[in-house]
Amino acid sequence: MHDTLSKRLLFLAAAAIVVVTLGYTQHLASIIREEEQRKVDLWVEAVKQRAELVSYTQTLFEDLGAEEKKRADRLAAAYRLIQEAPVGTDLTFAGDFLVNNNTVPVLITNREGKVVYKVNVDPPPAGVSEKAYYDSIRQTQMSRNPPIRFEEVGQTIYYAESVRLRRLREAMDELIESFISETVINSASVPVLLIDSSATQVVKSQGIDVSALDTPEKLQERYVEMSQDNPPIPVYLPGEGWHVVFYEESMVLTQLRYFPAVQLLLIAAFLLVAYLVFSSSRRAEQNRVWVGMAKETAHQLGTPLSSLMAWSGLLASKGVEEEALREMDKDIARLQVVAERFSKIGSQAKLEPDTPLDVVRDTAEYMRPRVSKHVELEVDLGPEAGQLALSRPLLSWVLENLIRNAVDAMDGEGVLTLRAHWKEDAFTIEVEDNGRGMTKAVARKVFDPGFTTKSRGWGLGLSLAKRIVEEVHGGQIFVAATEPGKGTNFRMVFRA
Fold it and tell me: Yes or no: is domain 348-495 CATH 3.30.980.10?
């Protein structure tokens, strides 16, 4: 009773520790999960604000670009005015406009194509010819605007968009590239996909293996899956159209979601290992006790056995009935076998090829006159079909133990059936009685060491029988059938 109470207290203490640990871990995981979610929410808001900033900047740049375009157009108009103005026209304003030009690149060439005048154009870099450099500028930067020719003086004027407008375009491109990079890189450890408006090309990604998304179908399947976790963010990038940002739960959040379950499994594994170690240690200790008791029993049986053998010899010399002496000698021989069995417990059993049907037959013949006269012992043996590697004394002892238990279960009156049959490569032995029977709960415990339903008993017989059958012979022993008031059937199965 005290041992059971201690076990319950230990179990409750362990359960309390597990519950408190899991609860506190879950609390910490919830806090971290909320913090991670807050970071993701901030990142989403930042993406939206940066997208608005890009759009606003684009509008501002377009306004500035329109102003710079007007400036270039007015510069071209001033050159044309000077070229086409009638004699006597006041060209002061036009001249001042040309002189004050500090943003629009201008090249003036003669008839031979040599540059005779330049404004807001960088000099050629070292190692590059002047002609090739200026020809390149005229072909790239100034090809968008038609040149202005002065036939009278043989000069041609080339001009392009202003330096400020070109720098605005470059700044806008850098801003868009920066937006794309920051959207993906500063994603708070969130897996991100940035795809174009056609939804067929990945512009940028983070935390996702895009090499596996090598077809539009796979890409669509992936971003549809991501959109089910979080709503996508549409962003408009000037010059590139609409893009869509897809994102999903971060790895940290995913791991935190499963962390309590993983921890519970680890705790369960630890408890299982601890239980197995404890059980193994307890069984080893019990085994040592049983082995010591068995050897001591064998030792104690030695003295009375010697005396019984002497008394048998004396009775034989006195002319006692031979039948009684034969039965007495059988019992003495059986006691010697029992003593030998007990002395060998804890030692490696020696298995030899033997006929199991002979063991069953001999055991039944020995037990028949030693059970109650009111017990009918029926023996059903199948045809001989082979041998098994077995220990005859140990297997015989198991059968004796089962037969005695059956007789006790029938209160010394009833039918006890012993069956033994070969079926292919399996040899089966059954010991069936029509006694008290057992409940299912009792049947599950009958092989546990120390468990007994008798008022006087150690509860070691069936436990030892199980070890002999399963550990020594590699077979199986179990309760095949039982029902209160209808009897019990024990079955043993051995493989050849």
Answer: no
